[in-house]
Amino acid sequence: MTTAAEAAQGEPEFLFPDVYAFVSDYLAQVLRRRLNGSVATWCPRWWEHPEAGARLSALWLAFEHLRHDTALGMSTWWLHHADPHLRVLMDPDVGPFAACSPKDGHTAYPFDPLPVDPRPS
């Protein structure tokens, strides 16, 4: 996962030093949802899910970039970044956390990676 130092070379300082701080100190504090497993779900060990790590890292970096746009930055972030990613992440049927539970925790191996045939030589 990307760190602030890697992503911010020559750019304004980041508000959150890494994706972990962004999720725990911002996203988890701002989002208030009914996590009942039928409408939405979450995994408290989200970093154990490669797709979640990639999506949340993308959300963090987009947030850090767009927060400097005082006119439309945060609206753009919510509508075009957070909402679509969170819909996928929190989908209780097909999202990466579908086998996990906010109460019962992480399932170690919920799903296999996508099947891929070897590349032809």
TrEMBL record:
Domain of life: Bacteria
Protein name: DUF4913 domain-containing protein
